[in-house]
Amino acid sequence: MMQDPAFRAAYDALEEEFSALEALLTARKEAGLTQAQVAERMGTTTSAVSRLESSLASEKHSPSLSTLRKYAAACGKSLRISLV
After folding, report:
1. N or C end: fewer C-beta atoms under 10 angstroms in the chain?
2. What is d(CA 37, CA 53) in angstroms, rounded to the nearest whole number?
3. Residues 6 or more apart whose Cβ sits within 8 Å of residue 28
4. CA distances from 75 to 13, 43, 82 (A)
5. Taking the CB of residue 42, how many other CB atoms lie within 10 A of it?
6. Average pLDDT in the 50-74 region?
7. Angle, to 10 degrees, between the axis of helix 15-31 and the axis of helix 5-13?
8. d(CA 63, CA 21)
9. What is the pTM of this model?
10. Phi, psi of 35, rounded to the nearest 5 degrees
């Protein structure tokens, strides 16, 4: 599928979202936490954490910096943003 120019262009357009999603999932995995545990630490629901993780791949919602900071803190990390 990556040989198809239209597919490749769509995939490349989502690179930042996929990268952000991978960072969140990696942080949660490294912390050894479930979505429910992250939700508890964030003071929210499991479904909210699930929506947060899936929203990055769907472009339906852009989470706030505050939410991303809470997620990072729940996983024992800190949020860092860089422009390259």
Report:
1. C
2. 14
3. 35, 38, 75
4. 28, 13, 20
5. 19
6. 88
7. 60
8. 11
9. 0.80
10. -60, -40
Length of the chain: 84
Helix (H) or strand (E) holding 68: helix 65-74
Architecture field, domain 5-74:
Orthogonal Bundle (1.10)
Range with the poorest average pLDDT among 1-15, 39-53, 64-78 = 1-15
CB atoms within 10 A of CB 39: 20
The torsion defined by the Cα of 31, 32, 34 and 36, in degrees rounded to 10, comes to -60
* Structure-block tokens of residue 56: 């990055």
pLDDT digits (tens, 9 = 90+) for 46-60: 999 999 998 877 767
